[in-house]
User: Fold these one by one.
Assistant:
Number 1:
Amino acid sequence: MSAIDALPPLSEVIRAHGLVAQKRLGQNFLLDLNLTARIARAAGDLRGCDVLEVGPGPGGLTRGLLAMGARRVVVVEKDPRCLPALAEIAGACPGRLEVIEGDALNFDAGAHLRGPVKVVANLPYNVGTELLVRWLTPDEWPPFWESLTLMFQREVADRIVAKPGGKAYGRLALLAQWRCDARIVLTLPPEAFVPAPKVHSAVVHLTRLDAPRYPADAAVLSRVVAAAFNQRRKMLRSALRGLAPDIETHLRAAGLTPTDRAETVSLAGFCALARQLGGERGFSAKG
Ligand code: SAM
């Protein structure tokens, strides 16, 4: 039996350290180690990689990542009550687990991680989308990570992998799919967590592309997509009117139909429009 397998069951750890779940920290724990092992496996081969895990809680997923052979696992946890439980795991894997107490929104990845890096987390719902957007929009591409394997509420996961034509399709889908392959690899019912949340959850696996799927300036694309989906029920010619004089001409030049709505425009279409507008004198990506 390995030192990780010899650690006490998670329900015992939670009891011993008084880890009553706190809603304000988005605490819904996974106590089934078979399940956390499945999530760790969904991240692919971890050997030779540093892994960043946000919000390890009592450490169920952390154990899975270490058991899968990650070179090092760096965890960032905001709740100091979890630290003794995480210290026990660190003791079972000398030199392989670094525990950082703090807010993941202030974490400096460059200071703690060495490539190749994979990010794997059962994210707290209150900061999950914000962290994803930050990881997808670094100043420079490629980013510090090779892949993201992240648990979200099902509805957020659907928005990340959505294709044109439905309500789920919008900024998050375009942001994710412009520079990544994104797919749902696992879905989980509320009962998988303690306490059980009201909604289903899903794990999304995103693999970064070396270069964007279609050329476009990131800031221009972001402004075009934001304007289009801020008024998603309007036709493109009205929703985008503020972006440039004679927007209809630009839409047509990009191969788009001015009376279409944002929801029906493909990623390739938005990139074509961003290129068209980016070349326009006087167009500012800042808005
Ligand atoms: N990984 C554990 C599991 O799967 O059982 C816990 C997941 S729970 C959904 C989210 C975790 O993120 C909690 O442990 C919570 O304390 C932590 N957390 C919440 N906000 C955080 C933040 N801003 N930075 C770091 N950790 C945070």
Number 2:
Amino acid sequence: MKIQKNISLKSKNTFGIDVCAAKYVDILDENELIDLLSQSTFKDEPKLILGGGSNILFTQDYKGLVIKISIPGIKIIFEDEQTCLVKAGAGVIWNDLVLFAVEKNLGGIENLVSIPGTVGAAPVQNIGAYGEELQNSFHSLKGIFINTADETVFDKDECQFAYRDSIFKRELREKFIITYVILQLNKNPQPVFNYGMVKTEMEKLHKDKYSIKDVSDTIAKIRDEKLPNPTSIGNAGSFFKNPEIDKDQFLEIKKEHPDTPGFTTPNSMVKVPAGWLIEKCGWKGKRINNVGVHANQALVLVNYGNSRGLDILNLAAEIKISVLKTFGIELTEEVNIY
Ligand code: EPU
């Protein structure tokens, strides 16, 4: 374990923002982490936990210690007729775990193909796409409390999953480090593809029976076409969450904007696509110097060059103001801002 000093984080966040970490350490196993957190030298140092850096916007240099979690390994730890428990290190690239599952015909996470980031970051915001969320295949996770270096296990309920949310994004933010995630996958998978665009594309395959590989290939293709690849254009996927508003507010908005889309949620709220609201306010495809709103998906903010995090934050603030003025809806960020 080597603590490095004054390290650029440009290659370690998918927005490609060039900020500097005063101290930086790459962690390859949980004992190294326990060791690090037990050292009195680092007790009072602010700490930032970094996975794939795909859901973070840096707006300034980080004065403390950045702990990059690179714990590897994917292993089947239990199976019966129906299910299979797969344990993966927090540093595993999320998509590698999806490909592992699909290749073994283990169902549950195939719709979450091509989501950038690491396994350890996936539960933090309960990643989701095309009708699925991580929580639906989640079994448990293991991790370490930063203050005490104590190891503990969280089962699904304890994670308090919600839409792009969990206890790790709230009460345990900067207090807990995930080291392993265990998923419960299905050995007799039933592909799920009710989501409009996925359904349309799947039907073009004209098959009697669809495999989970068909689903993951189709979704990977859709994502490729719609979402910018961070290796060529800096971005962190959806910048905002899709807002949930109550029915009355939705009906009020409909009076003035009859074409507003909305989806009723299980808790009887209405989820409105933020991408639609942003597009309606005229932002889609707009570029201001080196930052902009992606031309194919208005929910994605992009860094075309050497932008600062503050340039992106300023753009986000302007977007929020215009959505608030036009629709009376307050957007909230999905990405973590530092
Ligand atoms: N829409 C527009 N204009 C846009 C973008 C979207 O009108 O510029 C409309 C679409 O026509 C569609 C609706 O909004 O009717 C939903 O669009 P889409 O299917 O692209 O999904 P989204 O709600 O914008 C969410 C997730 C994405 C995920 C997709 C697919 C959030 C915040 N985002 O986006 O997740 O890939 O669904 O399931 O929930 C991410 O979290 O980083 C992410 C990319």
